[in-house]
Design a protein that fits this description.
Chain lengths: ~325, ~400
């Protein structure tokens, strides 16, 4: 794991060297900035050193938990990316809860009532969810909310949006009580979380259905039924438990995937998360912020995979490490 | 193994007729010796959803191929005066409003007005002049080439000047959305297929090298795969696409690229392929490693086949069905990725190309409220359709190749 991480930091660093010039080349063009200042900043950031020296410096700082300084705002990188990361995490957690709350019942239902009308509706929705681009779906939902407002305004004289469609907080957020703040953020998160969860739901439901069908047809289920175990218990205790194992394990991989995958939805809904921060940093060529975000999300991904493996061993008695 | 058993079983009753009628016997032997391709095609034909998906895809690719013919306007064509910004889809009249009879389709020109209350721009039909829709018109000002070879200026339909027909409305600059969607397909539909070839090339090469040479090469390549997989895909795509499209980046400088639109297009293809090859390489390597131990590889070697011949004639073909299905299911992912990148403005450049993602970007432009211009979301529908159909096609192929799912 450690070599992979070092390799990933090396790759990220090499990519960051693709940035044409650096932040200071742009600063040189600004009037009123003396060449000596540029020179001083350049040696302060170590940009005058050869590439491998820069990498070693950056890496040794990284190991000590220091991601460097942002060029643009002169703050430590960590304080610039902490807030977007936190916001994206909120969104990811909300999306996962939604994902589980919808897909488990849907998957179980369509496995138990295989080929029924409900099962077919679920499969059709699953195909839709897989094929619709996240950002387009977000745009369509925003449009429908506006149309809904137009409808309620004309028929009931109710001229309010059902859900907020942009950002994470309303104006006047700072003056709210903690409970109101929580409610406000939750309301803002419903729409993006739903969109992010959709594509996951589609895959999740389909796989769970397949797994359940396989287990429901197996010998131990027949034995259980023969012994007189009720339908409910057979479905939820005997079949669902083994069928859900890969998903329990997958939760570790889900978290970082959703943090990254929420990407375009965050852009469409002006959600102050990682992807907009990443695009900003790319626009202003803020190398260490770009690197910091790449490294932290990579770390999250790897930790997530590790958690998956551990969870898998914990819930599945057939898997034992060491 | 399963499929050969099935086939013998189904052919068995006919074999009883062998000595009775030579004609039937001939047919029976023929059926026994069906090739893998024939079986797969027969299975595939029974998969209704996959057939529909394939059919829709053929139509979509034909539309992209003949985009110049189907689109009444050029990709960046617009008029300065009057600017036709944010025009809603032109209403096509099939029934003559004066006589109330069915007539050849015609349209009216529209007049720009302001809503007295909201100050929103609205368009009112000017019913004084009729512009009948004409078919197979020549527009010498907008020549185009089909497949880059045949130059022509024939358009499927159009109206006489100064009337203009916008079937799906216009964007903020007054460009025709319908025409741009047609041209956009040329980018969005081909980029996935091209990127898959890059994936296939890199996956086969790297996986083949790793499995074939083993040892240090294997370690190096597999670590590289892990490293690429460790960085979140979306961010890797964004950062590569955004840095490489700048003509001042070191790689472009070294090879002497100026990043015009064709080069940006190719860059997007390469970036997509580069991010996606890891999984394929890993599988190819595993298949080659395990296939070496299999009896038929050992048999081939015992018959004197060289290592390379075993690899190319026996090992790689055995991975073909996996590779075909995997790649078919990779294409929709690439289409989604390309439209996503274009949506961020990081795909092929806007100068003389169009892409469905880029068109959806118009709907998020500054000062655009989507509830007043819902037609700007139309380009999302072909993305959805293309991805859906590729998925259906891939699922159908997977079932057709899978001997356990024979019907």
């Amino acid at each position: 794991m450690v070599p992979t991480f070092i390799g990933a930091t090396l790759l990220a660093f090499l990519i960051s060297q693709l940035v044409p010039g650096d932040f200071l080349t742009r600063k040189e063009l600004e009037p009123g900035v003396r060449p000596e200042t540029i020179q001083r900043m350049r040696s302060q950031f170590g940009l005058d050193k050869p590439m491998h020296v820069q990498y070693v410096r950056w890496m040794s700082n990284l190991v000590q938990g220091n991601l460097g300084q942002s060029f643009v705002s002169n703050q430590p990188v960590i304080s610039r990316i902490a807030r977007p990361m936190r916001n994206s995490m909120y969104l990811a957690v909300a999306a996962i809860i939604l994902l589980w709350a919808v897909s488990i019942p849907a998957g179980v239902y369509s496995a138990v009532r295989q080929y029924s009308l409900g099962d077919q509706v679920v499969s059709i929705f699953a195909y839709f969810g897989l094929a619709i681009p996240n950002f387009f779906f977000a745009q369509v939902l925003i449009l429908s909310l506006f149309l809904l407002r137009g409808f309620t305004r004309d028929t009931f004289g109710y001229n309010e949006m059902l859900l907020p469609v942009a950002g994470l907080t309303s104006s006047g957020f700072d003056n709210m009580s903690p409970w109101q703040q929580f409610r406000d953020m939750a309301r803002h998160m419903i729409l993006p979380a739903f969109v992010v969860a959709t594509s996951g739901m589609a895959g999740f439901t389909r796989v769970l259905r397949g797994q359940m069908i396989e287990y429901l047809g197996s010998d131990f289920i027949r034995t259980a039924r023969a012994k007189g175990v009720g339908q409910r218990s057979v479905t939820y205790k005997h079949a669902l438990r083994p069928a859900i194992i890969p998903f329990v394990a997958g939760i570790g991989g889900l978290l970082p995937a959703l943090v990254g995958g929420a990407g375009l939805v965050e852009v469409v809904m002006s959600y102050p998360g990682i992807t907009p921060a990443f695009l900003d940093a790319l626009n202003s060529q803020d190398i260490y912020v770009i690197l910091g975000l790449l490294v932290i999300t990579t770390l999250l991904l790897m930790i997530g995979n590790l958690i998956s493996d551990l969870l898998l061993a914990a819930v599945d008695p057939r898997i034992r490490y060491g | 193994m399963t499929d050969s058993n099935d086939r013998t079983a189904s052919a068995a009753p006919e074999r009883g007729l062998d000595h009775l009628d030579a004609h039937y016997a001939g047919e029976a032997t023929q059926r026994v010796s069906k090739s893998q391709g024939q079986i797969v095609w027969e299975q595939f034909r029974k998969h209704k959803a996959a057939l529909v998906g394939g059919g829709v895809l053929i139509v979509m690719y034909l539309c992209a191929l003949f985009a110049g013919f189907l689109a009444p306007y050029g990709i960046n064509e617009y008029r300065r005066s009057p600017v036709a910004a944010f025009r809603p889809p032109t209403q096509v009249h099939w029934i003559d409003q004066e006589t109330g009879r069915l007539t050849r389709p015609y349209i009216h020109d529209v007049r720009e007005e302001r809503d007295p209350v909201t100050r929103q721009r609205i368009y009112v039909e000017d019913t004084s002049v009729k512009y009948p829709i004409k078919f197979f018109v020549h527009r010498p000002s907008q020549p185009y080439k089909i497949l880059g070879i045949w130059e022509t200026d024939l358009k499927l339909f159009g109206v006489d000047d100064p009337g203009r027909i916008f079937l799906w409305g216009t964007n903020n600059l007054g460009k025709d959305v319908f025409s741009r969607v047609m041209f956009g397909g040329q980018v969005s539909l081909t980029i996935g297929i091209l990127a898959v070839w890059v994936t296939l090339f890199l996956g086969l090469l790297m996986g083949g090298l790793a499995g074939f040479y083993g040892g240090f090469v294997d370690d190096l390549i597999m670590r590289l795969v892990e490293v690429i997989a460790a960085i979140p895909g979306l961010f890797l795509l964004i950062v590569l696409a955004s840095l490489l499209r700048d003509p001042r980046n070191p790689i472009a400088q070294a090879i002497g690229l100026e990043m015009n639109s064709a080069q940006t297009f190719l860059m997007t293809v390469v970036v997509l392929g580069f991010v996606g090859w890891g999984g394929l390489a890993r599988v190819i390597r595993g298949l080659i490693l395990s296939a070496r131990e299999l009896d038929y590889a050992a048999a081939a070697k015992a018959l004197g086949a060289s290592e390379t011949r075993v690899l190319w004639r026996h090992l790689l073909p055995s991975t073909a069905s996996y590779v075909i299905v995997d790649l078919t299911l990779t294409i929709p992912g690439f289409i989604l990725a390309e439209t996503g990148l274009s949506f961020l403005g990081l795909g092929p450049s806007e100068v003389d190309t169009s892409s469905w993602g880029l068109l959806l970007r118009d709907a998020t432009a500054r000062g655009v409220s989507i509830q007043f211009v819902p037609w700007l979301l139309i380009p999302g529908i072909p993305i959805f359709l293309a991805v859906l159909c590729w998925n259906l096609l891939g699922d159908g192929l997977r079932d057709a190749f899978d001997p356990k799912k024979r019907r």
